[in-house]
Amino acid sequence: PDVIDGKTFTTTVVDLNPWVEYEFRVVASNKIGGGEPSLPSEKVRTEEAVPEIPPSEVSGGGGSRSELVITWDPIPEELQNGEGFGYVVAFRPFGTTTWIQTVVTSPDTPRYVFRNESILPFSPYEVKVGVYNNKGEGPFSSVTTVFSAEEEPSIAPSGVSAASLSSSVIEVSWAAIPWKMSSGRLLGYEVSSF
């Protein structure tokens, strides 16, 4: 409340966050202005509630062979709404209907890595991350697409040749390696001399 009648000695404060400690001060005021604030009250914690905010910035990718790496921004403590806070990570191969779910019990954890030999390189997965605490499950983030780890090139370029162009320049050429987009993104070639 903004201003309370001078004959009232209690009030109800609303729109507070669940499971957060608050302390209060009271200031007496009149037409001249406000006086000094009181000493703070004892700290009072609001009751627990189901989490209301899912993680943001859900993404991922990278990692090692046969891995699906999922990342998110952790929920700050003041928005966890209770004890026993954690994350529910759900994912499925793109185009399938059944979600695979796992629980991450640490509230500060920003990632989950799923390892399985059956994961094909650079495969798209639908991913969402939800929240829970001792009061129940909260909402999930919106679904985003994350690719499994890429596969390193398994063959070397062929047909490598070099021709001198001047006293300080040599032109090197090679045939492109056969590359499937299903293995990842070919970023480039590295040329070394010895």
TrEMBL record:
CDD domains: FN3. It comes from the Eukaryota. One of its GO terms (cellular component) is axon. PROSITE patterns: FN3. Residues 1-49, 54-151 form the Fibronectin type-III domain. Keywords: Cell adhesion, Cell membrane, Disulfide bond, Glycoprotein, Lipoprotein, Membrane, Signal. Its main location: membrane. Pfam families: fn3. Residues 35-65 are annotated as: Disordered. GO terms for biological process: axon guidance; brain development. It is found in: Cell membrane. GO terms for molecular function: cell-cell adhesion mediator activity. PANTHER family: CONTACTIN 3B-RELATED, PROTEIN SIDEKICK. This is CNTN3 protein. It comes from Atlantisia rogersi (Inaccessible Island rail). The lineage of its organism: Eukaryota, Metazoa, Chordata, Craniata, Vertebrata. The gene is Cntn3_2.
